[in-house]
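Q: I'm building a small set of examples for a reading group on sequence design. Run inverse folding on the following structure and report the sequence directly after it, with nothing in between.
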């Protein structure tokens, strides 16, 4: 078979996996016996709420919850999503036409392009950004990713006037933002909706971090904007909100036509999230009292807040220029040099951070830290970084 089996052209167009070299370096350090503290992965170390674990145990033990689920999601789950959006954001949704269950929001983000992007279609993607927008979504749908630079001086928001969107089919946006931690206000989101209407663009808004916020900040939904459902679909997930990353349960809501297209694609390639996990997610979503999360989640926010304060204070004491974000569990820091080289040097003192270049060209001189480790580890990491020789 050698020489006869080649990757599809769309796979060949995928950029090199920038983290592969980091993985090799990490493995080598571990072989050398280096004790590593990883501040690189956006996977919460905190457990799901007790009521989630109790519900999972009960529902997974019920044999009738192990059959196929509906491609669009179980009716009870879609109603729970609609009720949560009404309470949390004040947004009315039709659970029959404007809600779909996802096997994690990443799956939906990748598949929505399959439904609407034709070969050669241009898709506006932030830079830096979660790689799935450009790669798993756009490139694997034979689309052309068009970077929208996110610059610090503009609050890490794209300059809509400078972009021009008449030739674009779709736009991805993500606030609160991974990797920068930036947030977007309703004024900006209103301008995004107007921009999309003027240019006939589908807006895919990734709102996975809306519930991880600090210092009184509350993240909005783009669907709160007047006319947003004419152009926008919003992705959400239980992964970060309820610390359920491995359970793979998310949802998309908004424009009926986009939901229909996503459902058509999914009906051909999967059978939806497991029934028992959807029932667990219903319980999780119902734990909100209107827009107020349960006490457990308030404590999670407090934990992240303390960790973020510790990291920001620690790095600033070392001479790094850090500003605490209003949301997410990420800290985006300018390291002033090639991010891969800097991240490799950090391994020498036993600290792992994510090189910003993995999120796009505009991340070449940045690092992303994740506060998904206990506070004592974050303090220890800062002490180790004080020993860096640059």
């Amino acid at each position: 078979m050698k020489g006869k089996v080649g990757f599809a052209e769309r796979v060949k167009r995928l950029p090199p996996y920038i983290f592969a070299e980091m993985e090799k370096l990490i493995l080598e350090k571990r072989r050398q016996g280096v004790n590593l503290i990883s501040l690189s992965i956006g996977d919460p170390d905190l457990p799901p709420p007790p009521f989630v674990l109790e519900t999972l145990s009960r529902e997974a033990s019920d044999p009738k919850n192990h059959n196929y689920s509906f491609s669009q999601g179980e009716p009870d789950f879609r109603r729970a999503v609609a009720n949560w959006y009404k309470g949390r954001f004040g947004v009315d949704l039709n659970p029959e036409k404007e809600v779909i269950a996802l096997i994690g929001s990443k799956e939906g983000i990748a598949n929505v392009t399959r439904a609407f992007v034709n070969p050669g279609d241009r898709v506006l993607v932030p830079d830096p950004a979660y790689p799935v927008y450009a790669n798993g979504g756009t490139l694997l749908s034979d689309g052309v990713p068009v970077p929208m630079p996110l610059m610090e001086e503009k609050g890490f928001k794209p300059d809509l006037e400078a972009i021009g969107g008449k030739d674009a089919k779709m736009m991805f946006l993500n606030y609160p933002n991974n990797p920068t931690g930036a947030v977007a206000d309703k004024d900006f989101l209103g301008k995004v909706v107007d921009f999309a209407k003027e240019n006939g663009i589908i807006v895919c808004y990734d709102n996975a971090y809306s519930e991880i916020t600090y210092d009184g900040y509350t993240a909005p939904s783009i669907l709160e904007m007047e006319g947003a459902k004419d152009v926008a679909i919003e992705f959400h997930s239980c992964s970060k909100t309820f610390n359920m990353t491995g359970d793979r349960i998310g949802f998309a809501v908004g424009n009926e036509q986009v939901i229909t297209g996503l459902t058509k694609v999914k009906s051909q390639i999967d059978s939806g999230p497991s029934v028992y996990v959807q029932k667990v997610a219903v319980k999780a979503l119902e734990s909100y009292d209107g827009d107020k999360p349960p006490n457990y989640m308030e404590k999670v926010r407090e934990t992240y807040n303390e960790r973020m304060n510790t990291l920001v204070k620690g790095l600033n004491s070392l001479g790094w220029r850090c500003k605490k974000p209003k949301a997410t569990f990420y800290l985006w820091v300018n390291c002033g040099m090639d991010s891969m080289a800097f991240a490799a040097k950090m391994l020498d003192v036993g600290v792992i951070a994510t090189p910003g270049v993995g999120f796009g060209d505009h991340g070449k001189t940045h690092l992303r830290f994740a506060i998904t480790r206990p506070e004592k580890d974050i303090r220890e990491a800062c002490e180790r970084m004080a020993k860096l020789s640059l």
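The domain at 51-285 is CATH 3.40.640.10 (Aspartate Aminotransferase; domain 2).
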